[in-house]
Amino acid sequence: MSAGPRRIFSGIQPTGRKHLGNYIGAIRQYVEGQESADAGAGELAIYCIVDLHAITVAYDPEELRERVHDTTAILLAAGLDPERCVLFRQGDVRQHTELCWLLGGVTAWGDLNRMTQWKVKREQIEQQTGAFVSAGLFNYPVLQAADVLAYRATEVPVGDDQRQHIELTREIARRFNERFGPTLVEPEHVIPGVGARIMDLQDPMSKMSTTAGGESGRVYVLDEPDAIRKKFRSAVTDSGREVRRGGPEGGKEGIENLIEILCVVRGAGPEEIETEFEGRGYGDFKSAVGDAVADFLAPVRERYAELRSDPGELERTLAAGAESARAIAEPVLADVRDAMGVAAPR
Ligand code: AMP
Ligand code: TRP
User: Fold this and answer.
1) What are the φ and ψ backbone dihedral angles of 46, each rounded to 5 degrees?
2) DSSP sequence for 26-42
3) 12 has which bridge partners?
4) How confident is the model at residue 260 (pLDDT cuts 50, 70, 90)?
5) What is the distance in A from the centroid of ligand 2 to the CA of 158?
6) Ligand 1 pocket: which of 9, 15, 22 to mutate (most atoms <8 Å of CB)?
7) Could you tell me which CATH number the domain at 215-305 has?
8) CA-CA-CA-CA torsion for 90, 123, 196, 188, nearest 10 degrees?
9) 78-126 pLDDT tens trace
10) CA–CA gap between residue 336 and residue 143 (Å, rounded)
11) Which pLDDT score is estimated for 298?
């Protein structure tokens, strides 16, 4: 299937408390995608809040509804504009679940079993008492492939941890097209050069994560400025003094992470930052990064408060988004059913 005009698609989980890694690795790119999509040339950016992915681990139904609103408000506060992109909730558009089932026929069980996220999450769950590992968690990447392929997306902006899932999405599209004829588009992942993997402030060998690590290693988009400064002041570094990136021998991951964060927030290069902090020590540097991040996130937090206070308006935005999404996905589903010899719905 030859790709049409540029079409950007990404999904984000409704965990409400989005962290700096999500913001820098993904959300920042969503806004850039919206800004750079040329509507006149038929280009479009589509963003989905994936409530159906969230039900693959233990959760509370009422809370899920609230978290979808939290995440919608964060995305809008970050700069997504429903007039210029499609923003919707996955569960509102039935084509995702339908395509997920159909794609199950061209997804290798062995590929799913090799996914790092599956292996890590499964292990995390199995360590808890009363552990329940759902079949949905295993199938998670098929639904993700359906999300992307239902829109014939050409680009998928994500953080580094989603690289493997997008590679599998391409494999699924490839296998489908080989078996049933050219129908789906193989998308490219778009992973930022800087900030694709923000590390935990207390454990700079692990990525900042919603589920792993403690509160003090994770900076939330909605944290108060003082809380942000405090987390950066107590960030784990190393026994050195120079604000410099380390070599391949490692040992400087904490400082490297802070340099990377400051690069993104300031729009500067790492050399510039190293020069600025020459001879100034880690304490000074950590305070500067904390101040910069607090200033960077403050406007988002303020806009969030306003948007989140009107759930009716958030629902209207999601409903309009779902209608646009459905109009794009429905003809793709018709093509998929037809190619597979599955009856059209009636
Ligand atoms: P999630 O909250 O798991 O739906 O993730 C949303 C997006 O944030 C995905 O594109 C992830 O790849 C990205 N992401 C998650 N954690 C990080 C991190 N520590 N650094 C950079 N990007 C991240
Ligand atoms: N699995 C992704 C994450 O945890 C979220 C996601 C679901 C997604 N569907 C997607 C990302 C489609 C990109 C495209 O971050």
Assistant:
1) -125, 125
2) IIHHHHHHHHH--GGGT
3) 49
4) very high
5) 8
6) 22
7) 1.10.240.10
8) -50
9) 999 999 999 999 999 999 999 999 999 999 999 999 999 999 999 999 9
10) 15
11) 96
Whether the CB-CB separation of 109 and 67 falls below 8 Å is answered with no
In the CATH scheme, what is the code of domain 7-196+310-340? 3.40.50.620
Give yes or no for residue 241 having a pLDDT over 80. yes
The answer to whether 75 and 27 have CB atoms below 8 angstroms apart is yes
Q: Where in the chain is the domain with CATH 3.40.50.620?
A: 7-196+310-340
Q: What's the angle, vertex CA 126, arms to CA 125 and CA 132, rounded to 5?
A: 70
With CA atoms as reference, report the closest residue to 185 among 289, 27, 329.
329
34 vs 46: CA distance, rounded Å: 8
Task: Give the number of the atom of ligand 1 that is nearest the alpha carbon of residue 13.
Answer: 4
Percentage of residues of the chain with pLDDT beyond 90? 87
Report how far ligand 1's centroid is from the alpha carbon of 224 (Å): 21
Minimum-distance ligand 2 atom for the alpha carbon of 50: 7
> What digits encode the pLDDT tens for the residues 3-50?
789 999 999 999 868 999 999 999 999 999 999 999 999 999 999 999
- The CA–CA distances, whole Å, from 41 to 44, 46, 76, 106, 188 equal 9, 16, 24, 33, 19
Q: Between β-strands 188-190 and 155-157, what pairing exists: parallel, antiparallel or unpaired?
A: parallel
**Measured distance CA(100)–CA(105) in Å, rounded:** 9
The answer to pTM > 0.85 is yes
Q: 8, 23, 50, 191: which to mutate for ligand 2, most atoms within 8 A of CB?
A: 50
The pLDDT tens digits of the residues spanning 187-223 come to 999 998 888 999 999 999 999 998 888 889 999 999 9
Residue intervals of the chain classified under CATH 1.10.240.10 are 215-305
